[in-house]
Specification:
5-stranded antiparallel β-sheet, elongated, alpha/beta
């Protein structure tokens, strides 16, 4: 009995151990399975998050790369506009990049427009998530046009005259080939020569009548554009290699009813390169002697009788087309001589306004003070006196009536300097302004503003060197002058006597405004004015000068820049 009981007890102990082992094994399986399931779930969530993060990263990178490429014009504005207009779709694929998963990442770019905005929608997909779907990220970028300053189109011609001009006693346009960038444009009745001869190396375009009363040596083309352009009077000796008359419709123009009587001493053109040119000309002599242009009736074109030099008579089509287009452009512009408000707009375009968040506060203050002086035509609190300009630094200086008797050296590196003249500013002998360290940034130039009726006298009838110097000269190469002179109605700039230096862009607008040259001096710059008189210039020099608002020269680095700016990034799902 006892033996039997003991045997049963031992048997139960072994069964309990087996049961315990089975339970432990089962629990281990449960824990292991749970751990594996938790790990797989965590791993799936982790990779889903990684794919999503990578998709966001790639989408952002592609969008930002596109924005940068547009900014520096690797993608041009024209191409971008075309894509958005056509609602094109582009694809960017990144392969073999660690961490992007098998197959890399693909970003589709859809282009569109929304009012004034140009839009690109970037959609990036990569990897496969735990639910079998690709990781996706979307980003929209909106572009708008950058604020553009008013275009300043002054000083497009070397000289541009409104009501009329007198160009005796001056050498114009030397140092550059005649052409669109070396042109004298005449809107009204002008004397190309009167009491003094001249040499003009520029092209001349006139939309009004011109008189020749003395010797004119014209190296460039003499272009009569439109119905009012004609030779009003000719008693002088005109040396012109190319003369054109172009009607408003681009056809051959007329000289009017002018009869050129070549029996008058030297009263003729010579070295002509064009045939079938003149209508209504009774007789036209080419260089004198028997080499004549003649016609049998007023309804026929003039013909050239010389047969030994036919190559000088034939006009090349390329030249003809070029001249014709320039003449037609001049006809369109004949009544568009700059008005008085052009002076204000041109000046203000160089300085930032108060609504420019990135503007230098000191430049905004200078603009505001100058605007007050211009609008009220009187001195304002805050303007500086001219005698302090050597040490006064950038800012606005006000002059009522003052005479300069010494040289004022002004450093423009911290400019701008604005000098407003209400009365008369006179620069005497061995005196003037030397503006130094100017750059192509016109906001740091010197600007004279002549209020209505004001006068700037350069020289005051003395023959010693004096005037306005503002161009950097190094290695024989002249940079742009770094000085503007803007004049309102009734303003005058007089350059007196010999040896004066005038280096500036001068724009005098409105009735009664005039640029007057009275001696042998050097003028480096460009002039746009209502009236100009160089007849007493005594062979003054007015060489070619680049335009004030021309692009930076090719040897300077000017990065390209888009006219569009990214305004907003927006992510969505």
């Amino acid at each position: 009995m006892i033996k039997s009981f003991r045997r049963k007890v031992g048997s139960n102990k072994r069964g309990s151990m087996l049961t315990l082992v089975l339970i432990v094994v089962a629990m281990a399986l449960i824990f292991t399975t749970s751990a594996v399931m938790i790990t797989n779930s965590t791993r799936a969530r982790y990779y889903d998050n990684v794919y999503s993060s990578e998709a966001r990263t790639v989408c952002t990178a592609v969008a930002e790369s596109f924005v940068k490429a547009l900014d520096i014009q690797e993608i041009t504005d024209d191409q971008f506009e075309k894509w958005t207009t056509n609602k094109d779709v582009a694809t960017v694929t990144l392969d073999n990049v660690p961490g992007l998963g098998k197959g890399g990442a693909t970003t589709k770019i859809k282009f569109d427009k929304d009012g004034a905005y140009l839009i690109a929608t970037f959609t990036t997909t990569l990897g496969v998530k735990s639910d079998g779907k690709y990781a996706t990220e979307n980003c929209m970028v909106y572009w708008g046009k950058k604020p553009q300053p008013d275009k300043v189109d002054l000083f497009q011609n070397l000289i541009e005259v409104g009501d009329g001009g007198d160009f005796g006693g001056v050498n114009i346009g030397a140092g550059h080939d005649p052409g669109p960038d070396n042109t004298v444009f005449l809107h009204g009745h002008s004397y190309l020569t009167r009491t003094a001869s001249n040499s003009i190396y520029s092209d001349i375009i006139t939309v009004g009548p011109v008189d020749f009363n003395n010797t004119a040596n014209i190296t460039g083309s003499l272009i009569f554009a439109g119905k009012d352009a004609t030779i009003n009077k000719m008693t002088g000796n005109v040396h012109a290699e190319k003369v054109f008359f172009v009607a408003p419709d681009g056809t051959q123009g007329k000289t009017g009813n002018l009869t050129i009587d070549c029996t008058i001493q030297n009263a003729c053109f010579y070295n002509f390169e064009i045939n079938t040119l003149f209508r209504n000309v009774q007789r036209f002599v080419n260089g004198g002697g028997n080499n004549k242009f003649s016609q049998t009736s007023n309804n026929n074109y003039a013909t050239y009788n010389q047969t030994t030099n036919a190559t000088n008579v034939a006009m090349k089509k390329e030249l003809e087309d070029s001249i014709k287009q320039r003449a037609l452009n001049a006809i369109k512009e004949e009544n568009k001589f700059p008005t008085v408000d052009k002076a204000s707009k041109a000046f203000l375009a160089n300085l930032p306004s108060a609504d420019d968040s990135n503007a230098d506060p000191s430049l905004v203050a200078i603009r505001q003070l100058a605007e007050q002086c211009i609008s009220t035509k009187s001195s304002q609190t805050g303007c500086k006196s001219l005698n302090s300009i050597k040490t006064g630094g950038k800012g606005v200086y006000f002059v009522n009536t003052e005479t300069i008797s010494s040289w004022y050296d002004v450093d423009l590196s911290n400019g701008p300097y604005v000098i407003i003249v209400k009365g008369t500013l006179t620069i005497k002998e061995t005196a003037g302004f030397r503006f130094k360290n100017g750059t192509n940034d016109t906001s740091k130039w010197a600007t004279f503003i002549l209020l209505p009726g004001a006068t700037l006298n350069v020289g005051n009838n003395e023959s010693s060197v004096g005037g306005i110097q503002s161009a950097n000269v190094s290695g024989g190469k002249k940079d742009k002058p770094h000085c503007f002179i803007y004049g309102y109605s009734g303003t005058t700039v007089n350059v007196h006597n010999d040896n004066k230096i005038f280096e500036a862009y001068c724009g005098l607008f409105g009735a009664g405004s005039k640029f007057d040259i009275l001696g042998k001096s050097t003028f480096y710059g460009r002039v746009t004015c209502t009236d100009i008189d160089t007849n007493n210039g005594n062979n003054s020099d007015f060489p070619w000068c680049p335009g004030a608002f021309d692009d930076t020269p090719a040897d300077d680095f000017t990065p390209k820049e888009s006219k569009y700016a990214a305004k907003r990034f927006r992510y969505f799902y």
